[in-house]
Amino acid sequence: LKVPHAFQQQLSAEKTLTLCYAIPSFKAMSSAWKKQVEDCPDLSSIIEPGLDKLDSYAARMDSVPAYVLAMGK
User: Fold this and answer.
1) HSE-up (13 A, CA, CB side) for residue 70
2) From its phi and psi, is residue 40 left (phi > 0), alpha (psi between -120 and 50) or beta?
3) 7: left (phi over 0), alpha (psi -120 to 50) or beta
4) Cβ-count burial 41-71 (b if 16+ within 10 Å, e if not)
5) Rounded to whole angstroms, how far apart are CA atoms 42 and 7?
6) Beta carbons within 10 angstroms of residue 7's beta carbon
7) What is the pLDDT of residues 3-52, one digit of tens each?
8) Deepest in the core among 5, 22, 50, 70, taking most CB within 10 A?
9) Which stretches within the chain are classed as H helix?
């Protein structure tokens, strides 16, 4: 539960712009969960549905220009 909690904390800061962190945070969370699956294969049945959901959200980001604009300088 540490991974999703850290992800939620990163994206819910009140004093910092957070949209620009969305894509890097999704990638970091996905990478962390994939590493957990490698380190603890017994947990894959629990982690894989979360990875699938992350992938579906990441695919949605491709169609929302706000994410791309937030990544620009």
Assistant:
1) 15
2) beta
3) alpha
4) eeeeeebeeebeebeeebeeeeeeeebeeee
5) 23
6) 20
7) 778 777 767 766 666 677 777 888 888 899 999 999 999 999 999 998 99
8) 22
9) 2-11, 22-39, 44-61, 65-71
CA gap 73, 70 in Å, rounded: 8
Q: What is the pLDDT of residue 39?
A: 94
d(CA 44, CA 49) in angstroms, rounded, equals: 9
* CA distance readout (Å), 47 to 3, 9, 26, 52: 11, 19, 14, 9
The answer on pLDDT for 2 being more than 80 is no
